[in-house]
Amino acid sequence: MSRGLSLEIRRKVIEMSASPNGVHIGGSMSIADILAVLYADVLRDPAAEGMSGDRDHLILSKGQASAALYAVLAATGVIPQAECATYAEEGSRLGGHPMKRLPGVDFSTGALGHGLPLALGVALAGKRFDHGKRAFVILGDGELQEGSNWEAAMAAAHHGADNLVAIVDRNGWQISGRTDDCMSLEPLADKWAAFGWRVLGVDGHDHDEIRTALTRPVEPGRPTVVIAHTVKARGVPGLEDTKQSHSATLGTAARRAALAVLDGDRA
């Protein structure tokens, strides 16, 4: 089921890339498989209203990849499929970054470095009130250059937030260029471990690896980070693993070429 869902997410992102405002197609395509596994196999009622109950919460901290989130919300029936055609239009609920007024979005995001602290707050509230809720947050690798992430990482381990899972989209790019050329993150796994987190590494396009990591039993008292190694703009000819994929409006020919790749994957 998750593989079919990932194809639907990619197809919707490509369709939205016709918008004259452009889509952050690189980061949206790199997290498509992660979102597919989360929504198909992991999250419990993520689009439920309110903060109470034992539902799970997903926070897309790298809000520039909103097109992928809208695609999965449409594919899973949370929002109408036709609404994706309004992406980034004036008055649309589907902005360039997710906004809280949309079902399935608990927090407006995109100011990088805020998602992990928000997710920690949700996780700690769940533990305090014994809701059984879990908080998942998707972070960009370039976003980890924001110090607020490391403050939250330190606090999460200190408070034993074992119902918190951070997923790092390690696609190797940020708006200014290669992530490690702008500000090296390595040794990234060791950094998280030094802050007291359980660290798991996966191929961010391998559904079995992603699923196994996200469904592992909790390690009591320790939050979990999954470092997902991905390819920016995966499946889009000419844009894979390039800076140009950061924000793009795809013309008709480019969209057809990308959809042909998806049709080949589906076959």
Question: Could you describe the 3D structure shown?
Answer:
This protein is of the alpha/beta class and 267 residues long. The chain has one domain: 3-Layer(aba) Sandwich (Rossmann fold), CATH 3.40.50. It has 10 helices and 7 strands. A 5-stranded parallel beta sheet has the order 1-2-3-7-6, sandwiched between helices. A two-stranded antiparallel ribbon has the order 4-5. α1 crosses α3. The protein starts with a helix and ends with a helix.
List keywords for this structure.
267 residues, alpha/beta, Rossmann fold, 5-stranded parallel β-sheet, two-stranded antiparallel ribbon, 10 helices, 7 strands, 13% strand, Transketolase_N, Transketolase, thiamine pyrophosphate, THDP-binding
